[in-house]
Structures are given as C-alpha cells and as structure tokens.
Amino acid sequence: MESNVDATDGETVILNCIDPNASSLHEDNEEIVISTVEVSQWDLSSLAHRPIIKIKANRQRLVQQSSYFHGLLCGSFSESCFDSISIHWDMESLLSMLRFLFGCSLDLTSENFLPLYEAALFFGVEKLLLVCRSWLNYVISEGRIWPPPLHLEDLIHIWEYGRENATDFIPQLTDCLARNFIWMTSCDSFHNVPFELLLSCVKHPCLTVDSEKHLCDSILLWLAANTIPYDLLNSTGDARLEIFTEIRTSLLSLPFAAGKRRCPLFSKFAERSVDAILSLATSSSFSLANILGGGDFSQLRIRLTECTKILDLSGCPQISLPLLLLSMLPFSYSVDTMLTKKLNQLPLKLERFNMDVSRIPWETFPVLTFEAVEVVDVSNCPMLHLEAAIECFSKSFPSLTTLKAAYTSNFRTMKLYQLLQRCPLLSNIDLTVESNPVIPAKVSVISSFPVVKLQISTSSNEETCPAVPTFHFSRRLSNITNLILEGRTDIYDSDLHNIAECCPSLCCINLNVCTSITDSGISVILLKCVGLHSIFACDTFFAHNCVLSLCRDISRFDGVAMKMEKNTNSLAYKLQILHIGGCKAISEITLLELISQLYRVRSLCLRETQLDDNSLYKFSGSSLEMLDVSDTKVSCHAVGHVVRRSPHLKCLIARGCRHLLKEESNILENSPALSYNCPVLYYELGKSCNLEEISLGWGFSFFSLEALRPAIKMLRTFIVGLGGSLGEDGLKLVPTFCPWLETLILYFQVISDSVVRNILETLKNLQVLALCYCFGEISSLSFQFSAPCLRKLKLERVTAQMTNDDLLTLAQNCMNITELSLLGCRRLNSESQDTISNGWPGLISLHLEDCGEVTAKGVTSLMNCQALEDLLLRHNMPLLRKVALDVCDAKDGDFDLPDFTDRRFLSIVKIARCNLKRRTLDSMKSGPCTTPVHAETLILTWDSEKLSRTVVKERL
Q1: Residue 933 CA neighbour count, 13 Å, CB half
Q2: In terms of domain of life, where is this protein from (predicted)?
Q3: pTM for this model (two decimals)
C-alpha cells in the first residue's frame, strides 16, 4: 500500500543513494528524484541500474523503522540536522528495503534474500529481519515439499554469511540440508559445499540417505572435486578424511565395499568394511556383544529418520533380522542387556523347525514407526529372514508401497498372501529369483531326478512347527498393481488363481521363466484382472488359452478360421506391454489373431516365436516404442511395415532373422533402380525414428549403417550379431555416428587394435563392451586408454595372445569392471588370478574359459573377490548364487555336492560332462587320438522348498 505520511518541509529528508558497485559510465546520467509518497509506483527494474538516485523520504518513518536512521537523524551526529544525507549501498536491495519501510509488500526470493537480510541487519530494520527469518524458516521447514525455492548455491551463500556474522539460522540450514542430503548431492553445485557444512550434515542426527553406499559415494565425489589427484594426495595428511569415520562401513553393500579397495582415499576403510561385512554375513549366530565387544551399537544401526522415504539395503549379505530390529528400536533400548539377549536368540528361533514367525513375541520389541518410508529394497540380502522382516515392515513402515526382494530364494511364494495382508498399502512387489536354466522350449531333457524336498526336523525335545496355514481371502482386497515373480519355479496355477482373486487392481505382472505354471493358469489372471496393461510371460507355457483370454468378446476360434473384427473392449486392445518371447507353443494363426488386436501396445517382445510376415502385417498400432522379433521368420518388408506405423520407435531387436538378408537380396535383384546404399528397412528407420537401442544381424552392413545414421544419433545400445558385417571402416564410424553409446556388443565382426582403441578413446560413456568370436585379434595396445566408466567386459575368442602383462594393462586402465568374461586366452597362467583379484576386487561376475593354465594351481587367489555372485569355475565362495563347472576339471572325476541346508546362498549349479571324440587321421600322427567334446549338462536348482536335478543335452 502507498504511504500516507505527509512530506511537508521539516519532515522530509533527501537520501542521496549511491551504488558503490555501479559503473561510473552509466549511459543515462540524468539526475533522478523520487519520493516515498509514490513508493508503490517505483519501477525497480529500471531504477535498480541507476548509479545515483535522490529519494525524498519522511524523516519520522525512517527514524521509527530503522535503528540506523534513528541514530543518524536523532543522535549527536552532525547529519541529524542536515536535510540531505548520503547512503552508499547496493541500489536494488536499498530500494526494496525502503519500499518495505514505507508500507509496500515484499517479494522474497532465493536471489534477493541475502542482500535484503544484509541490508536489514546493517540498517537495523527489525521488522524486515523478522520477515526474512520467517521466510527462510518456512522454505527450509521440514513440512515443505522439496526441492525448495532456494537453489543450493543460495543456501551455501546464506550459510557462509551466517557463519561469518554469527547469525542464528545456521542450525536450521544444517538441519535442512542433512534431512535433504540426497537432493543436495544431486545438485550441480554440490562440489561447492564448504567442507565444514558437509561435515556438519554428515554428523547430523537427522542425516537422511537411501543407503550407506549413497553417503559414501557422495563424500568420495566431493573429495574428488576438491582435492589434488589421487596419485599425488598424501591421504594420511589430509584432515578432511576424518569424514570417512562417519560412514557406517559395516552397513555398506559388499560389491560396493569390495570395489572401493582400489580407491586410494578409501582403501583402508574399504578393507575394514569388507572384513566386517563378511564377519557378520558368515557368523553362525548373531551376537551384538561379540561383534562390538559390548560397546556402542551406533555403527550397526541402519539410518532411519522421520524423513526417510527409501531404505535401500540391496547387496548387503550382512543384514539379518536382529540387525534390522536393532535399527528400528529407540536408541536407548539398544544398550538394554535383556533386549540384546532376545535379539541374539532370534536367529535360533527362526531356524528351529522353520518356525512360524507369528509365534515370535513381537511385543517385546518396541519398534519405532517411520511414517515416511515408502520403498524398501532388500534384494540380494540372503541372511535376512524375509517372512519375519515383513512383520517388522508392517509395524514400522505403515506407508510402505514398494517392496523389492529380488534373489531371496528362501522366501516361499505361499507367504506372498501374508505379505499382502500385513502391508495393506503395498502396490509394487518384486520377488525375482535366479531364472532356472531348464526352460522346456530351449533344452532337451534326458532325465529328471526325483526332487529333494526341504526337510523339517521333528525332534521330540524341541518345539514343533505348526503346518503352514492355508491362505484365506480377507474381505479387504489387495492394492497390488505391479507384481514381479520372475524365475520362481515354486509358483503354480493355484497361486495364480489366488492372486487373481485378491489382486483385482493388478496392472502389471511379470511371470518370466515361471516354468511350473501352465497356459490355463496364466489365462485365469488374464480373465479376472481386467485392468492389466503390462504382461511379461517370456519362456513360459503362454499359449492358446492365454490368447483366447486376451481377445475374448471379439474372437472365436473355430478350427482354422478366426474372426478379425476390432473391439476396443478386449484386453489385447488395451495392452501397453506384452512380452511373450520364447513361447513357442503359440501357433502361427493364434499369433496372427493376437497381433491383430494389439492396438495400443508400446513394448512388444515376440522373440523365438512362430512369428512370420502374415502375422506382423496384421499389426495396426501406432504407439510402439520397443519391438523384439529376434530369431523369427519375419522379412524386412514386414518389419518396415511396423516401423512406418511407429514414429516413436526407440528400440528394435532383430538378431537371428535370416529372412531379413534373403528379402533384402531379392529386392535388390528385382529392383535395379534401388541403390544398394539405401536398404529398405534401414532407410525407413533412418527416415522416421530416433533410436536408443538396436540389435541386428543378418543383412546388416556398412551401407545399412549409413542409411541408419539419422536415427542413431542418440543411440545408447548397439548390438551386431551373426550375419551382420560392418567391416573395419564401418566399426570406425560407429563412435562418430553414435557418440552417446553406453553398450556395444559385437559378434563375428572384423576388428583390430585401431578399431578398439578408437571405441575406447571416443566413447566416454561406454559401460558395456563385448567382443565375441570376432575375426582378427587384438593386443594390449587396444586397452592403453583409460575407460573409467566401463563396467562389463567380454573378450571371447578375440585375445588369444593375451598375457599376464596384457591383463595387468587392462586392469590398470579399466579399473571399475564388475563383470568380466575371458574366453580363449590360452597364454594366461595362475599368476593372472592375482591380477584379477587385485585389479578388480569388486567383481560380481567372472567367467574364465579355455584360458590356458589359469587354474593349474587352484583358484585360491580369487578369494579376494568376495563379492562374486556368478563364477564359471568351481570355488567355495560364501555369496555365490550361480556356478558353472565341468567334470573335466574335477580332480577325481566328481564333485562333492552340498545338501539343502549346506548350500548357503547357491541357487544354481551347472555341471557339464564331455565325451571323447576321435580326431582326424592327420592329427592322430602328432598326439593322442581323442579330444573332449561336450555331451550333456547336469543342472541343480534350489528354490524355497526343494532341490531339483535335471540332465539336458545342451551345454548350458
């Protein structure tokens, strides 16, 4: 509002406002005189740039509102009797402050807060100081929706100003940034955070992070940006490294901690972390007192605060039920002797006869409630008893909506219903397990041994375990919309019936490689869950009945003829995602009917099905973003038909489609006018698409790459398989055409050192590189460029001359690899194991095949790779989930196989057997007359209740 104060003579003072930061060469030097009487009409945007402004202001109002003007105009200063005084201050903030003094509203922003606060502090305007503090408290308050209206840079400036001037808002700022630490680390200016502020946040009791790994990564990121290079840093003399002591290293994920052992700044902490993790993970009984010597438990408490929304414990084998409960208890209870004793007894009670968790006296554990937690990820936490953990989640996390528990093989599917009842707000569940390699459509079973059921003790001197109760549906139906059961062989048709009954809101279901369910069982889900829009059923028995369910009300199967009308009420019409790759039981005519109804589908996987051109031509949708037709009988014309209808296509997977090459050749022969430089399919792709992923084989050439160029500028994944031939010139163009590539996989291509060096030197974002069975060999020269982003590397039959020294060069330049596969490196010996274990201590997958004498002296050197989950060699690692062996490698021609209880975390073991094959006459003259040839594979698979043994003809 406008000031009503009179400006008569004697009550007015002239303020000569001079901006000390303004340029003296202002383009307009005309004297500007304004009055506070018209304060509401001031145009700040134009006035703020003036170097000098004269303001007629009411003396009394200035004296009343500002201690500075009170002392200047009413005190003993000579200016008190002057009609004009000079003020040297930033013009914009001074004008804004004067407008506030004379009754105008104030618009505080992240840009003007600090200048206004500083002006209010200097001129002693208490009301403005109060407004500024109130605004800051509001925007950084706990109840505010983040990110805040202040940028991180602004918060840093405010903190620095407050620290220099001893203001009272430092604690609130630290509290705010500690609670929103993840937001802070995601900002581009995170590296500008002062170390004292960072340390205060990390030490703050309200520090909120998704996981200890996130905290550690953030600290390392900050130190990397604020220290000299690692190789020049005297880590022992840098006082800032004290911040690492605030990380609860016992709670890091094992792959992360193991991988950081090569980080100079963190190597000592990483070593201690790995030792602590393995000590917790391999302990037969959990004893808090033994682990910490009866001392402080704070280093074992998972960070949970009132602001925690995501709890990520994935990859932490040390996480157990007592450790989880310890973190949910009030801090004062963690030192209670009796409660500690009860925590220590929990594992014994859970293991005793597979005891029903409902019999545990949960009321003795006064757990806290964390209302904000919505997402919990306990994937790959094999020590955690998930069924018991669900009880904890239901008590402490009432707002839980998402539970990720992948690779938890000891969780019985029948307990899914307990989960749905105990956590009623759950909408997303992931119970993925390792996929069983015995997929009926892909292997030929020779014999199948009787299964070995999980044995439950019935010793008379112990408590007996009650039978698992049959699930009874409650009247309150589940809110589940997204359910992932991929790989679970302990789920049957009856389970699908129950899921269909209690999850009517289901929108997405993943049943990939669930080989115990049938076509009829899947069809029940499709019939009853009318809201489904995403179906993943690859490598299952998805077939005729499922298609009937999807197309019901519009189609009628009467032998060969099928009704083709389009009906928008069908489930097929509304589907957005349909993945049925590997479902070979679907006939061509059934597939044709299904595809004709897929109008809204965005992602479609039909790999290894009976798909042909007749079916693909029936596709009438226009929303397709992903298409997988690999290993089918489609031609380039049919795929081109889909491409023309799909301007939003981002992913095309068409490896193994031999008809693409045949059709392309016919077109070229019959159409002399068509240039070979513009193949039909690739011309269509280049003309209309902006691809992010492409996988091609037969018919793909250098000319195809040229035609694709407009479509692959933003490509992230590029795979060239058998039948494709880019040539060395084409491969050299790939980094130029696709500068953002993250994954590059090449099969049967012509490569050289110059090609690989060009790839590694140019593609700075490359994370996955696979060179498999390529023509030409590469040497250590290929890997003399640093590739810090590379995470997965496959070198299969392309580095036959690789030596231990070459492997060392590779480890030095590609130090962050977590998955390594070497095939055919015959010059490696046992010393290479040290290079692998020391160079890549964070490996989670290691495949060594036909690599000379790499295992001639055993594989004990690989013990340093404690995070391994997938190993091609026989080795007793405590966290292995998959192992591939060969009888030829067994010392006495056989292996000692673990029984059910001793298997620890193993879920799959594959043992291949070879027969001896007579060599040719020419080779018989120079050596033995036989050579090992693969014959069959024994596959052992464990799920939550049994061990299965299967023998197949194929090598897996």
Answers
A1: 8
A2: Eukaryota
A3: 0.83
